[in-house]
Amino acid sequence: MKFTVTIAGRDLEVEVLGPEVRVGGRRFAAALLRVPGTPIYHLVSERNSRTYALLRQGANWQIQQGGEVWPAEVVDERTAQLRALLKDQRKQDAPGLVRAPMPGLVLRVDVEAGQEIAAGAGLVVLEAMKMENEIRSSGPGRVKSVLVEPGQAVEKGTPLVEVVGQG
Predict the structure, then answer these.
(1) In this model, does residue 64 exceed pLDDT 60?
(2) Model pLDDT, residue 151
(3) Is residue 154 within 8 Å of residue 103, measured between CB atoms?
(4) If you count Cβ atoms within 10 Å of the first and of the last residue's Cβ in the chain, which end, N or C, has fewer?
């Protein structure tokens, strides 16, 4: 599995390959072993062993070792792709047009035309790759129109809902 790990503003591509890890294109024989019931992990490689405390802080992590602390963000490959899609979508769309970030099946439409919504309100639920994905409003506004219905198959980029005042 691939991850992008951001520490001190520096992005590292990390790929876990069973007993090996690839960091920035370089392969290492390594394992990350957790001490049960604690936030302590041992990073064991061919050359050495280091002990870290990995603490979850909301969506991010805090890495501690030897009195030093590094905030870190860990993003898996799928989340990075979704973020890129949403970022590209916001650049090219008129404000308020919400599009499908991936192909899927519309399971539910949680809004109707004329409805006032808050930032983060659920708009549509798509099923993609056997997972439910809730598409949310990026800002407050009023639903101008609903462009899909439950049971409808949609492609990536298909307009789902138009929201006036969203932003």
Answers:
(1) yes
(2) 94
(3) yes
(4) N
